[in-house]
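Sample pair:
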Amino acid sequence: MKILGLMLVMTLSICASEGKILFEKYCTSCHIPFISMSKLKENFLDYNNTLLKLKAPTLNQLSYRLKQQVGDRHGDEDLHRMEVTAFMSDYVMYPDKDKSVCLDDVIQHFKTMPSLKGKISEDELEQVGEYLYDFDSNIVKSKSVKYEGFDQALKEAKKEHKVIMLEVMSKECHFCRKMDREVLIEKDVVEALKKDFVSVKIDISTTKLPLGLTTTLTPSFIFIDEHAKVFMKMPGAWKKDDFLQILKEATAHTKEKK
């Protein structure tokens, strides 16, 4: 089983790599891979696309919207991948803005893409689909802080005299994904977390919270000092500036105790 699992991981990695190459070949003349959600919102809501002057949705926009709007995202992941890839394949062959998964406030700024019919093979479309499906979650993971298990986090907090930030989430929580994609990925938030915190993320639908903690509110952010004492709980999704203020309050609390 371990060998089969390793082979599957290697196969997916190869497909993702080939998908990236194909995406760059066919798509990057119009689709920029990544722009932060805060900057995208500013561009479309405040500046009507005059700030960034995008010609098409970014890849992180497409990846997220496709998974949210196409098929059953709560069902089997492999089936959902197939549904998303099938939709994408049909769209690039027969483009139609009426079929777009993008928000109306976004899609109105773009022209209908040219058809790739006869220019890209079915195998290539499948590889691009794999890359596109995973892009949003992969980019969030790569740009976010590194998350530790709680026991390791406590050891590191004691050693480095840092605060543990425990993010309580669940897979089906919309506002958890919103925090991950729009706030916890932002550069100044990541820098603040790296400097003064050890970050832990726990999915309460599959894992019990440490220290006898209980909550049904997701997302929740629980701050724990190096002595394993909980000193602050902040449930809810927050805007970036508000969350940065929460982090400042958490670090100020620990400095007062020293």
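The two ends are 51 Å apart (CA to CA).
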